[in-house]
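Async update (no meeting this week)

Hi team, since we skipped the sync, here's where things stand on the single-chain job. The sequence we agreed to prioritize is pasted below, unchanged from the tracker. I ran it this morning and attached the output directly underneath so nobody has to dig for it. Comments welcome in thread, and please keep replies under the output.
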Amino acid sequence: MVPSENPLLDNLRIEPTPGATTLVIFGASGDLTRRKLLPALHSLSRGQRLPARFAVVGVARTPITDEQFRQQFQESLREFAKVDARSDEVVRSLQAQMYFVAGEMDDAKLYARLAERLRAIGSEGVLYYLAIPPSVYGTVAEGLEAAGLAGTPEHGWRRIIVEKPFGTDLASARQLNAQLHRHFTEEQIFRIDHYLGKETVQNLLVLRFANGMFEPIWNRRYIDQVQITAAETVGVERRASYYEGAGALRDMVQNHLMQLLALVAMEPPTEFSAASVRDRKMDALLAVQPVVGNGTESPAVVRAQYREGWVAGAEVPAYRSEPGVAADSTTETFVSLRLQLDSWRWAGVPFYLRTGKRLPKRTTEIAIQFHRPPLQIFKRINPTPLASDLLVINVQPDEGISLRFNAKIPGTRMQVAPVMMNFRYGTTFQGEVPEAYETLLLDAMLGDPTLFARHDFVEASWALVTPINEMWRADKTPLPTYESGEWGPAEADALIAKDGRRWRTL
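Output:
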Protein backbone atom coordinates (compact mmCIF):
# COMPACT_ATOMS: atom_id res chain seq x y z
CA MET A 1 0.00 0.00 0.00
CA VAL A 2 1.39 3.40 -1.00
CA PRO A 3 1.66 5.77 2.00
CA SER A 4 -0.73 8.71 1.86
CA GLU A 5 0.66 12.22 1.47
CA ASN A 6 -1.84 13.28 4.12
CA PRO A 7 -2.85 10.60 6.64
CA LEU A 8 -5.81 12.75 7.77
CA LEU A 9 -7.52 11.93 4.47
CA ASP A 10 -7.00 8.14 4.60
CA ASN A 11 -10.28 6.20 4.30
CA LEU A 12 -12.25 9.45 3.92
CA ARG A 13 -12.69 9.49 0.14
CA ILE A 14 -16.21 8.00 0.17
CA GLU A 15 -17.79 10.57 -2.09
CA PRO A 16 -21.01 9.93 -4.01
CA THR A 17 -21.22 10.76 -7.70
CA PRO A 18 -24.46 11.77 -9.43
CA GLY A 19 -26.00 9.70 -12.18
CA ALA A 20 -26.18 10.95 -15.75
CA THR A 21 -26.95 14.68 -15.55
CA THR A 22 -27.54 17.63 -17.84
CA LEU A 23 -27.05 21.10 -16.36
CA VAL A 24 -29.17 23.75 -18.10
CA ILE A 25 -27.95 27.27 -17.32
CA PHE A 26 -30.44 30.06 -18.01
CA GLY A 27 -28.40 33.25 -18.31
CA ALA A 28 -25.41 31.39 -19.72
CA SER A 29 -23.84 34.54 -21.15
CA GLY A 30 -24.00 36.40 -17.84
CA ASP A 31 -21.41 37.35 -15.27
CA LEU A 32 -22.33 34.67 -12.70
CA THR A 33 -21.92 31.91 -15.27
CA ARG A 34 -18.52 33.12 -16.40
CA ARG A 35 -17.14 33.94 -12.94
CA LYS A 36 -18.50 31.09 -10.85
CA LEU A 37 -20.44 28.33 -12.59
CA LEU A 38 -18.10 27.42 -15.45
CA PRO A 39 -14.95 27.43 -13.27
CA ALA A 40 -16.82 25.32 -10.67
CA LEU A 41 -17.69 22.73 -13.33
CA HIS A 42 -14.05 22.55 -14.39
CA SER A 43 -12.92 21.97 -10.79
CA LEU A 44 -15.54 19.28 -10.25
CA SER A 45 -14.53 17.52 -13.44
CA ARG A 46 -10.84 17.75 -12.56
CA GLY A 47 -11.62 16.16 -9.20
CA GLN A 48 -13.62 13.40 -10.93
CA ARG A 49 -16.83 14.41 -9.15
CA LEU A 50 -19.02 14.80 -12.24
CA PRO A 51 -20.84 11.79 -13.72
CA ALA A 52 -19.38 10.04 -16.75
CA ARG A 53 -22.41 11.17 -18.75
CA PHE A 54 -22.58 14.89 -18.12
CA ALA A 55 -23.65 17.71 -20.42
CA VAL A 56 -24.14 21.46 -20.18
CA VAL A 57 -26.78 23.39 -22.11
CA GLY A 58 -26.47 27.16 -22.05
CA VAL A 59 -29.62 29.23 -22.55
CA ALA A 60 -29.65 32.99 -23.19
CA ARG A 61 -31.03 35.64 -25.49
CA THR A 62 -27.65 36.05 -27.18
CA PRO A 63 -27.72 34.11 -30.47
CA ILE A 64 -24.42 32.19 -30.34
CA THR A 65 -23.44 28.73 -31.57
CA ASP A 66 -22.35 25.68 -29.60
CA GLU A 67 -18.79 26.38 -30.63
CA GLN A 68 -18.95 29.99 -29.44
CA PHE A 69 -20.31 28.81 -26.08
CA ARG A 70 -17.39 26.40 -25.78
CA GLN A 71 -15.02 29.24 -26.55
CA GLN A 72 -16.69 31.29 -23.81
CA PHE A 73 -15.95 28.41 -21.45
CA GLN A 74 -12.25 28.62 -22.33
CA GLU A 75 -12.17 32.38 -21.84
CA SER A 76 -13.95 32.08 -18.51
CA LEU A 77 -11.38 29.59 -17.22
CA ARG A 78 -8.47 31.67 -18.45
CA GLU A 79 -9.78 34.85 -16.79
CA PHE A 80 -11.28 33.57 -13.53
CA ALA A 81 -9.58 30.21 -12.86
CA LYS A 82 -6.14 30.89 -14.40
CA VAL A 83 -6.42 27.70 -16.46
CA ASP A 84 -4.68 27.33 -19.81
CA ALA A 85 -7.59 25.76 -21.66
CA ARG A 86 -5.50 24.93 -24.73
CA SER A 87 -3.49 22.26 -22.92
CA ASP A 88 -6.10 21.06 -20.46
CA GLU A 89 -7.61 17.64 -21.15
CA VAL A 90 -10.46 18.27 -18.70
CA VAL A 91 -11.50 21.34 -20.69
CA ARG A 92 -11.58 19.42 -23.96
CA SER A 93 -13.65 16.65 -22.38
CA LEU A 94 -16.23 19.09 -21.02
CA GLN A 95 -16.36 21.15 -24.20
CA ALA A 96 -17.41 18.12 -26.22
CA GLN A 97 -20.65 18.02 -24.20
CA MET A 98 -21.49 21.73 -24.16
CA TYR A 99 -24.39 23.09 -26.20
CA PHE A 100 -26.31 26.33 -26.56
CA VAL A 101 -29.96 27.21 -27.13
CA ALA A 102 -30.83 30.85 -27.82
CA GLY A 103 -34.16 32.59 -27.43
CA GLU A 104 -36.38 34.89 -25.41
CA MET A 105 -37.41 33.58 -21.98
CA ASP A 106 -41.09 34.23 -22.72
CA ASP A 107 -41.02 32.46 -26.11
CA ALA A 108 -42.56 28.96 -26.19
CA LYS A 109 -40.30 28.08 -29.12
CA LEU A 110 -37.24 28.39 -26.85
CA TYR A 111 -38.54 25.63 -24.59
CA ALA A 112 -39.47 23.46 -27.54
CA ARG A 113 -35.88 23.72 -28.83
CA LEU A 114 -34.58 23.02 -25.33
CA ALA A 115 -36.77 19.93 -25.03
CA GLU A 116 -35.47 18.68 -28.36
CA ARG A 117 -31.87 19.18 -27.25
CA LEU A 118 -32.47 17.38 -23.94
CA ARG A 119 -34.04 14.41 -25.75
CA ALA A 120 -30.97 14.20 -27.99
CA ILE A 121 -28.66 14.22 -24.97
CA GLY A 122 -30.78 11.68 -23.12
CA SER A 123 -29.78 12.36 -19.50
CA GLU A 124 -31.69 10.78 -16.63
CA GLY A 125 -31.50 13.94 -14.54
CA VAL A 126 -31.81 17.60 -15.51
CA LEU A 127 -30.78 20.48 -13.26
CA TYR A 128 -32.01 23.94 -14.28
CA TYR A 129 -29.90 26.81 -12.97
CA LEU A 130 -31.63 30.21 -13.13
CA ALA A 131 -28.69 32.64 -13.30
CA ILE A 132 -31.16 35.36 -14.29
CA PRO A 133 -33.05 38.16 -12.48
CA PRO A 134 -35.75 36.93 -10.06
CA SER A 135 -38.37 38.81 -12.06
CA VAL A 136 -38.00 36.16 -14.77
CA TYR A 137 -38.15 33.09 -12.51
CA GLY A 138 -41.90 32.68 -12.90
CA THR A 139 -41.71 33.05 -16.68
CA VAL A 140 -39.04 30.36 -17.00
CA ALA A 141 -40.79 27.98 -14.60
CA GLU A 142 -44.04 28.36 -16.54
CA GLY A 143 -42.26 27.84 -19.88
CA LEU A 144 -40.57 24.68 -18.60
CA GLU A 145 -43.84 23.18 -17.40
CA ALA A 146 -45.67 24.07 -20.61
CA ALA A 147 -43.01 22.19 -22.57
CA GLY A 148 -43.23 19.17 -20.26
CA LEU A 149 -39.81 19.85 -18.73
CA ALA A 150 -40.77 20.60 -15.11
CA GLY A 151 -42.42 17.50 -13.69
CA THR A 152 -40.44 14.52 -12.46
CA PRO A 153 -40.33 11.86 -15.20
CA GLU A 154 -40.87 8.15 -14.60
CA HIS A 155 -37.13 7.56 -14.87
CA GLY A 156 -34.85 10.34 -13.68
CA TRP A 157 -35.42 13.71 -12.03
CA ARG A 158 -35.87 17.43 -12.65
CA ARG A 159 -34.61 20.10 -10.22
CA ILE A 160 -34.27 23.87 -10.32
CA ILE A 161 -31.74 26.18 -8.64
CA VAL A 162 -32.67 29.82 -8.03
CA GLU A 163 -30.22 32.54 -7.01
CA LYS A 164 -30.60 35.38 -4.54
CA PRO A 165 -32.07 37.90 -4.11
CA PHE A 166 -35.14 35.79 -3.42
CA GLY A 167 -37.62 38.64 -3.27
CA THR A 168 -37.21 42.18 -1.98
CA ASP A 169 -39.53 41.93 1.03
CA LEU A 170 -41.88 39.45 2.68
CA ALA A 171 -44.71 39.95 0.19
CA SER A 172 -42.50 39.49 -2.88
CA ALA A 173 -40.80 36.41 -1.36
CA ARG A 174 -44.19 34.81 -0.74
CA GLN A 175 -45.27 35.65 -4.28
CA LEU A 176 -42.06 34.16 -5.71
CA ASN A 177 -42.49 30.99 -3.68
CA ALA A 178 -46.06 30.69 -4.92
CA GLN A 179 -44.93 31.16 -8.55
CA LEU A 180 -42.34 28.39 -8.29
CA HIS A 181 -44.66 26.05 -6.40
CA ARG A 182 -47.18 26.25 -9.22
CA HIS A 183 -44.72 24.45 -11.48
CA PHE A 184 -42.23 22.64 -9.18
CA THR A 185 -42.59 20.88 -5.84
CA GLU A 186 -40.61 22.15 -2.85
CA GLU A 187 -38.40 19.04 -3.10
CA GLN A 188 -37.39 20.12 -6.62
CA ILE A 189 -36.51 23.71 -5.67
CA PHE A 190 -32.98 24.59 -4.47
CA ARG A 191 -32.60 28.20 -3.26
CA ILE A 192 -28.89 28.87 -3.29
CA ASP A 193 -26.96 30.83 -0.67
CA HIS A 194 -23.28 30.50 -1.50
CA TYR A 195 -22.27 31.14 2.13
CA LEU A 196 -23.71 27.73 3.04
CA GLY A 197 -21.34 26.08 0.57
CA LYS A 198 -18.24 27.40 2.30
CA GLU A 199 -16.18 24.76 4.10
CA THR A 200 -16.05 26.59 7.43
CA VAL A 201 -19.81 27.13 7.52
CA GLN A 202 -20.35 23.40 7.04
CA ASN A 203 -17.64 22.67 9.61
CA LEU A 204 -19.61 24.66 12.17
CA LEU A 205 -22.06 21.74 12.32
CA VAL A 206 -19.17 19.30 12.81
CA LEU A 207 -17.53 21.52 15.43
CA ARG A 208 -20.72 21.62 17.48
CA PHE A 209 -22.18 18.17 17.05
CA ALA A 210 -19.16 15.88 16.51
CA ASN A 211 -17.14 17.08 19.50
CA GLY A 212 -18.08 16.42 23.10
CA MET A 213 -16.21 19.45 24.43
CA PHE A 214 -18.20 22.19 22.69
CA GLU A 215 -21.91 21.36 22.83
CA PRO A 216 -22.13 21.26 26.68
CA ILE A 217 -20.89 24.87 26.86
CA TRP A 218 -22.82 26.14 23.83
CA ASN A 219 -25.40 28.10 25.84
CA ARG A 220 -26.14 31.16 27.98
CA ARG A 221 -24.34 29.74 31.04
CA TYR A 222 -20.96 29.90 29.33
CA ILE A 223 -21.34 32.24 26.32
CA ASP A 224 -21.43 36.00 26.90
CA GLN A 225 -22.08 37.19 23.33
CA VAL A 226 -21.88 36.25 19.66
CA GLN A 227 -20.60 38.60 16.94
CA ILE A 228 -21.08 37.83 13.25
CA THR A 229 -19.20 40.09 10.82
CA ALA A 230 -19.19 40.19 7.02
CA ALA A 231 -16.80 42.94 5.95
CA GLU A 232 -15.91 43.97 2.40
CA THR A 233 -13.20 46.33 1.19
CA VAL A 234 -14.89 46.87 -2.18
CA GLY A 235 -17.52 49.47 -2.89
CA VAL A 236 -20.61 49.08 -5.02
CA GLU A 237 -18.39 48.40 -8.08
CA ARG A 238 -20.55 47.81 -11.21
CA ARG A 239 -23.64 46.75 -9.25
CA ALA A 240 -25.15 50.18 -8.62
CA SER A 241 -28.34 49.39 -10.53
CA TYR A 242 -28.97 46.42 -8.22
CA TYR A 243 -27.50 47.80 -5.01
CA GLU A 244 -29.47 51.06 -5.06
CA GLY A 245 -32.66 49.01 -4.78
CA ALA A 246 -31.26 46.58 -2.25
CA GLY A 247 -28.77 47.97 0.26
CA ALA A 248 -26.74 46.06 2.82
CA LEU A 249 -29.72 44.85 4.84
CA ARG A 250 -31.37 43.04 1.94
CA ASP A 251 -28.15 42.13 0.17
CA MET A 252 -26.34 40.53 3.14
CA VAL A 253 -28.35 40.38 6.37
CA GLN A 254 -31.59 38.80 5.14
CA ASN A 255 -29.81 35.80 3.65
CA HIS A 256 -26.13 35.27 4.53
CA LEU A 257 -26.02 36.57 8.10
CA MET A 258 -29.37 35.07 9.09
CA GLN A 259 -28.14 31.69 7.84
CA LEU A 260 -24.97 31.99 9.94
CA LEU A 261 -26.98 33.03 12.99
CA ALA A 262 -29.28 30.01 12.59
CA LEU A 263 -26.34 27.61 12.37
CA VAL A 264 -24.83 29.03 15.56
CA ALA A 265 -28.11 29.14 17.49
CA MET A 266 -29.87 25.94 16.33
CA GLU A 267 -30.59 23.01 18.63
CA PRO A 268 -28.94 19.65 17.88
CA PRO A 269 -30.67 17.81 15.02
CA THR A 270 -31.71 14.21 15.63
CA GLU A 271 -29.63 13.15 12.62
CA PHE A 272 -27.57 14.72 9.87
CA SER A 273 -30.35 14.87 7.31
CA ALA A 274 -31.71 17.77 5.31
CA ALA A 275 -35.10 17.73 7.05
CA SER A 276 -33.69 17.56 10.58
CA VAL A 277 -31.00 20.22 10.06
CA ARG A 278 -33.36 22.62 8.30
CA ASP A 279 -36.09 22.13 10.92
CA ARG A 280 -33.70 23.08 13.73
CA LYS A 281 -32.44 26.12 11.78
CA MET A 282 -36.02 27.21 11.28
CA ASP A 283 -36.70 26.89 15.03
CA ALA A 284 -33.71 29.14 15.76
CA LEU A 285 -34.84 31.80 13.31
CA LEU A 286 -38.38 31.81 14.70
CA ALA A 287 -36.90 32.45 18.16
CA VAL A 288 -35.33 35.76 17.06
CA GLN A 289 -37.22 38.66 18.59
CA PRO A 290 -38.54 41.30 16.16
CA VAL A 291 -36.14 44.22 15.82
CA VAL A 292 -38.87 46.78 15.15
CA GLY A 293 -42.05 47.12 17.18
CA ASN A 294 -45.11 49.23 16.31
CA GLY A 295 -43.24 51.09 13.56
CA THR A 296 -41.22 53.12 16.08
CA GLU A 297 -37.53 53.89 15.91
CA SER A 298 -35.55 50.93 17.17
CA PRO A 299 -32.28 51.30 19.09
CA ALA A 300 -31.27 47.76 18.04
CA VAL A 301 -30.27 48.55 14.44
CA VAL A 302 -27.94 51.10 12.82
CA ARG A 303 -27.48 51.93 9.14
CA ALA A 304 -24.89 54.12 7.45
CA GLN A 305 -23.32 54.97 4.08
CA TYR A 306 -19.63 55.24 3.22
CA ARG A 307 -17.95 58.57 2.47
CA GLU A 308 -14.75 59.05 0.51
CA GLY A 309 -11.58 57.75 2.14
CA TRP A 310 -8.67 55.37 1.78
CA VAL A 311 -8.82 51.57 1.47
CA ALA A 312 -5.69 49.41 1.03
CA GLY A 313 -3.62 52.49 0.27
CA ALA A 314 -5.90 53.77 -2.48
CA GLU A 315 -8.21 56.76 -2.38
CA VAL A 316 -11.84 55.80 -3.05
CA PRO A 317 -14.97 57.91 -3.71
CA ALA A 318 -18.05 58.25 -1.57
CA TYR A 319 -21.01 55.99 -2.31
CA ARG A 320 -23.02 58.90 -3.71
CA SER A 321 -20.17 59.62 -6.14
CA GLU A 322 -20.14 56.08 -7.55
CA PRO A 323 -21.38 55.67 -11.16
CA GLY A 324 -25.10 54.95 -11.25
CA VAL A 325 -25.79 56.10 -7.69
CA ALA A 326 -28.20 58.96 -7.02
CA ALA A 327 -26.62 62.09 -5.57
CA ASP A 328 -29.16 62.06 -2.72
CA SER A 329 -29.21 58.29 -2.24
CA THR A 330 -30.29 56.98 1.17
CA THR A 331 -29.21 53.39 0.43
CA GLU A 332 -27.29 51.92 3.35
CA THR A 333 -23.88 50.32 2.75
CA PHE A 334 -23.42 49.36 6.42
CA VAL A 335 -25.77 47.71 8.91
CA SER A 336 -25.31 46.59 12.50
CA LEU A 337 -27.95 44.88 14.60
CA ARG A 338 -28.41 43.58 18.12
CA LEU A 339 -30.63 40.50 18.17
CA GLN A 340 -32.07 38.50 21.05
CA LEU A 341 -33.49 34.97 20.91
CA ASP A 342 -36.49 33.80 22.92
CA SER A 343 -35.06 30.40 23.77
CA TRP A 344 -33.93 28.54 26.87
CA ARG A 345 -30.44 28.10 25.43
CA TRP A 346 -29.85 31.73 24.45
CA ALA A 347 -31.95 33.84 26.86
CA GLY A 348 -29.98 36.99 27.66
CA VAL A 349 -27.17 36.35 25.12
CA PRO A 350 -26.95 39.16 22.53
CA PHE A 351 -26.17 38.35 18.90
CA TYR A 352 -24.44 41.29 17.21
CA LEU A 353 -24.45 41.35 13.41
CA ARG A 354 -22.62 43.80 11.17
CA THR A 355 -21.84 44.04 7.50
CA GLY A 356 -20.52 46.82 5.32
CA LYS A 357 -18.67 47.92 2.23
CA ARG A 358 -15.42 49.91 2.08
CA LEU A 359 -14.26 48.54 5.43
CA PRO A 360 -10.54 48.08 6.19
CA LYS A 361 -10.43 44.33 5.67
CA ARG A 362 -12.27 41.65 3.71
CA THR A 363 -13.37 38.99 6.14
CA THR A 364 -16.37 37.01 7.32
CA GLU A 365 -16.22 35.51 10.78
CA ILE A 366 -18.28 34.25 13.70
CA ALA A 367 -16.81 35.20 17.09
CA ILE A 368 -18.18 33.44 20.17
CA GLN A 369 -17.02 35.10 23.38
CA PHE A 370 -17.28 33.19 26.65
CA HIS A 371 -17.89 34.52 30.15
CA ARG A 372 -14.87 35.31 32.29
CA PRO A 373 -14.19 32.94 35.21
CA PRO A 374 -16.41 33.74 38.22
CA LEU A 375 -13.40 34.53 40.45
CA GLN A 376 -10.41 36.55 39.22
CA ILE A 377 -7.70 34.87 41.30
CA PHE A 378 -4.87 36.46 39.26
CA LYS A 379 -6.01 40.06 39.73
CA ARG A 380 -3.21 40.83 42.19
CA ILE A 381 -0.47 39.96 39.68
CA ASN A 382 -2.51 40.99 36.62
CA PRO A 383 -4.23 44.29 37.52
CA THR A 384 -5.97 44.49 34.13
CA PRO A 385 -8.81 41.99 33.58
CA LEU A 386 -7.84 38.87 31.67
CA ALA A 387 -9.12 38.49 28.12
CA SER A 388 -12.26 36.39 27.73
CA ASP A 389 -11.91 33.04 26.02
CA LEU A 390 -12.90 33.35 22.38
CA LEU A 391 -13.80 30.91 19.61
CA VAL A 392 -13.54 32.38 16.10
CA ILE A 393 -14.86 30.62 13.00
CA ASN A 394 -13.18 32.21 9.96
CA VAL A 395 -15.59 31.80 7.04
CA GLN A 396 -13.52 33.67 4.47
CA PRO A 397 -11.02 34.33 3.03
CA ASP A 398 -8.70 32.22 5.24
CA GLU A 399 -10.99 29.35 6.21
CA GLY A 400 -10.35 27.94 9.65
CA ILE A 401 -11.06 28.02 13.38
CA SER A 402 -9.15 29.84 16.13
CA LEU A 403 -9.37 29.49 19.90
CA ARG A 404 -8.11 32.16 22.30
CA PHE A 405 -7.37 31.27 25.91
CA ASN A 406 -5.14 32.53 28.70
CA ALA A 407 -1.73 31.00 29.42
CA LYS A 408 1.26 31.70 31.64
CA ILE A 409 4.07 33.69 30.07
CA PRO A 410 7.38 31.77 30.40
CA GLY A 411 9.54 33.17 33.19
CA THR A 412 10.10 33.15 36.93
CA ARG A 413 7.04 35.32 37.65
CA MET A 414 3.39 34.40 37.32
CA GLN A 415 2.20 36.49 34.39
CA VAL A 416 -0.80 35.65 32.24
CA ALA A 417 -1.51 36.58 28.61
CA PRO A 418 -3.95 35.46 25.92
CA VAL A 419 -2.70 33.05 23.26
CA MET A 420 -4.27 31.77 20.02
CA MET A 421 -4.52 28.21 18.76
CA ASN A 422 -5.26 28.12 15.02
CA PHE A 423 -6.59 25.50 12.63
CA ARG A 424 -6.49 26.25 8.89
CA TYR A 425 -7.96 24.07 6.17
CA GLY A 426 -5.23 24.76 3.63
CA THR A 427 -2.35 23.73 5.89
CA THR A 428 -4.04 20.89 7.78
CA PHE A 429 -5.54 19.03 4.84
CA GLN A 430 -2.91 20.09 2.30
CA GLY A 431 -5.21 20.76 -0.59
CA GLU A 432 -7.37 23.35 -2.24
CA VAL A 433 -10.53 24.23 -0.39
CA PRO A 434 -13.42 23.76 -2.85
CA GLU A 435 -15.32 26.84 -3.91
CA ALA A 436 -18.83 27.15 -2.52
CA TYR A 437 -20.43 26.76 -5.96
CA GLU A 438 -18.65 23.43 -6.47
CA THR A 439 -20.21 22.01 -3.31
CA LEU A 440 -23.66 23.42 -3.99
CA LEU A 441 -23.81 22.34 -7.63
CA LEU A 442 -22.81 18.82 -6.69
CA ASP A 443 -25.33 18.66 -3.82
CA ALA A 444 -28.13 19.78 -6.13
CA MET A 445 -27.20 17.07 -8.64
CA LEU A 446 -27.27 14.53 -5.80
CA GLY A 447 -30.61 15.86 -4.57
CA ASP A 448 -29.27 16.89 -1.14
CA PRO A 449 -30.98 20.15 -0.02
CA THR A 450 -29.22 20.42 3.38
CA LEU A 451 -27.20 23.50 2.36
CA PHE A 452 -30.07 25.24 0.56
CA ALA A 453 -32.71 27.59 1.95
CA ARG A 454 -36.22 26.24 2.46
CA HIS A 455 -39.26 28.34 1.55
CA ASP A 456 -40.37 28.91 5.16
CA PHE A 457 -36.87 29.98 6.26
CA VAL A 458 -36.73 32.58 3.48
CA GLU A 459 -40.11 34.00 4.45
CA ALA A 460 -39.30 34.03 8.18
CA SER A 461 -36.06 35.90 7.44
CA TRP A 462 -37.92 38.48 5.39
CA ALA A 463 -40.48 38.81 8.20
CA LEU A 464 -37.64 40.05 10.43
CA VAL A 465 -36.01 42.34 7.86
CA THR A 466 -38.99 43.92 6.08
CA PRO A 467 -40.20 46.02 9.08
CA ILE A 468 -36.70 47.51 9.38
CA ASN A 469 -36.78 48.70 5.77
CA GLU A 470 -40.27 50.10 6.25
CA MET A 471 -39.07 51.98 9.34
CA TRP A 472 -36.15 53.44 7.40
CA ARG A 473 -38.41 54.56 4.54
CA ALA A 474 -40.44 56.59 7.01
CA ASP A 475 -37.35 57.98 8.76
CA LYS A 476 -36.50 61.50 7.57
CA THR A 477 -33.41 62.02 9.77
CA PRO A 478 -30.06 62.36 7.96
CA LEU A 479 -28.37 59.08 7.12
CA PRO A 480 -25.23 58.48 9.23
CA THR A 481 -21.98 58.11 7.28
CA TYR A 482 -18.56 56.61 7.87
CA GLU A 483 -15.22 57.22 6.24
CA SER A 484 -14.11 54.56 3.77
CA GLY A 485 -11.39 52.49 5.39
CA GLU A 486 -12.94 52.74 8.87
CA TRP A 487 -14.97 50.09 10.73
CA GLY A 488 -18.32 51.80 10.34
CA PRO A 489 -20.06 54.75 11.99
CA ALA A 490 -19.85 55.91 15.59
CA GLU A 491 -23.52 54.94 15.96
CA ALA A 492 -22.56 51.26 15.54
CA ASP A 493 -20.05 51.57 18.37
CA ALA A 494 -22.68 53.25 20.53
CA LEU A 495 -25.14 50.41 19.79
CA ILE A 496 -22.92 47.78 21.36
CA ALA A 497 -21.50 50.12 24.02
CA LYS A 498 -24.98 50.35 25.56
CA ASP A 499 -24.45 46.77 26.71
CA GLY A 500 -20.97 47.49 28.06
CA ARG A 501 -19.36 45.69 25.14
CA ARG A 502 -17.39 46.62 22.02
CA TRP A 503 -16.92 45.26 18.54
CA ARG A 504 -14.14 42.76 18.15
CA THR A 505 -11.02 44.18 16.47
CA LEU A 506 -10.39 42.21 13.29
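Quick observations from my side:
Residues 320 and 329 are 6 Å apart (CA to CA).
The domain at 196-376+454-497 is CATH 3.30.360.10 (Dihydrodipicolinate Reductase; domain 2).
Reply here if anything looks off.
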